[in-house]
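Appendix B. Raw example, untouched.
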Amino acid sequence: MAGVAQDPTLKELIRNRDVIEDLPLNKFYEVLNHAYYFYDDSSFCDILMRSNVINSATDRKYCYNLLAILEKWDHILKIFQAHVPAEKCCEYLNYWVYDKMNGNKYRYKSMKLLYSAWDVINKEKIKSANKCWHKNFNINENEFKKKKGLYVFLELYDTIKRSWDDLSNTSNKPYCDYIKDNFKLYYSMKHEQDICGKFSVYTDELLAFEKKFKDKLSFLSGKCPDSNLNMVFNRSVNETTTSLSNEDEARLQGKDSELAAKGSSAEVEPNQKTLEKTDVLQQLGTDEKYKKLNRNDTKYKYCKYCEDILTLEMDYPGISIFCAKIARNLRDLSDMLNDISHHNDRCSYFVHWLYDELFKMFSNNSEYLHKLDVFNKLLNVGYKINNELREMNCMFTYDPKDSIEVWKEKKHLHDYFKGFDNISCDYSTDVYKCQKHCEYIAHTNELYGKYINGCCTYYYNVDDKWEDNCAGYFECDKKYNPYNLYAKLNCENRGYDKEFKEVKYVPIDAYIKSLTTTSYDNPHLLKLGNSIVPNTQEITHYNLTYDPFYVAILIAFALLGIFLVIFMFYKFTPLGSWYDKRQLRKKIIEYNYHGHMNELSHYDFGQVSAHPKKRLRISYNSA
């Protein structure tokens, strides 16, 4: 068990392997691993570490190790006093003890017992003034991995810097990558502390990092100008992500330099931008729903879902807060939007809020969103929570073919339908407001006409039935036709002079619809060979096979045919005569049987009457 893992990256950065092995932390681990590997049983530890608990034998071994080390603590300090102060040695011991227990599934209970024993040992057994007290390392393994990772980096930095100084600037990249990875680690731990409430877990490492690097940023920025290291001490926890990281931006540009040069930013039409600023949206009432979903009250409670996101915080400031919002909104959606009765309606607000925020963050590369690691990790947070929620989940999928314009159009339509009943204005009090309402309705009418044929199916002579294929953002009820609002507000006579075309419904015949559906299930009926017209014989076969009427007719004729064949055999073949003779013979036998039985019944057995108590006399002749 080494203090510094033999990381291939470190081997490349510090080419002299002896330098790593000679690090004080590694030397300290080596001394403890060899000098205190063998231990004597101690009745003191046997008393402290109860034998009636799970893993008690292993716990006592930990206690034996610790007791031996603390009793020899003065000797250990003398070994390292030339290069390592006593406080640093105590830090090393704390890390060594936790590393000893790493992988133990009873680690939490074992550590708790060992810390209690540590306190008693120091108070009762150690008389020296140089005492090492335990730190609170009773944390989960992932938290310890981060703590130790940053701690080791701080221990290694000066050694790495000396190797770095000997190289030219052309060899900076591996060093810059390693430095930036650890700055990211610091930044994620800082946000985990602030967002998740882990105020005591990382305090020592974070303070040590800030103390070491606050006055070294100018040097590091000169060595690694593209790493953006300065921002780690400048950005607020509550800042929101607005752009891609440098790495993702460069990677995406490399995939499509032409598109990157042209710019893939999806701009919304100026007309729509203007409309979005009016008070129409406020009147709809949907804005309030989105504001609730965007509240900043996510600290502590939802952190467990966003552990993988925290490491991306440096490249995407505010991404951790946004992740926590996703978790909160999914987990508490019924409370967040408790004024909405139907769960599916609440889900529709969540989905449109989610993608609206995502497109705000990554609008410059909306065509490549699905290729971004951060984007997929955010969606995975939602998928994970949905799996937990099961019946009350809000399923959503991202289609890369849907551009930012498409999502904005869908959100616009969704909000229009949800707030339809709230749209009104009074020309007598506010002419300008009503004109803006008419503009909003006209723009909505364009989108309504664009989507209705793909979202709704209407039938001839059936006004109250339709098929709705876009339940998440479109309503097929004809009352929602924007023309109804346009007429209600009398826009045509109130100064709105632009052309407004009423969207007409295109009903279809239900039978044609059925044939269309059938053609999808049976494409051979739609195209045979090179011919577009179906083969008549194929269609006839299909109709005879699958139409219930024809099936019934075929069965009836089959039964009639069977009866006819039997009748023909009976009347015109020897089989009929044989059957008749057989039946006649059977009747004769039955007649004879019944006749004999009748004769027997006519005998008068009463003539041989006798009193039951008298003896029966039987005469016989002697031989």
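End of appendix B.
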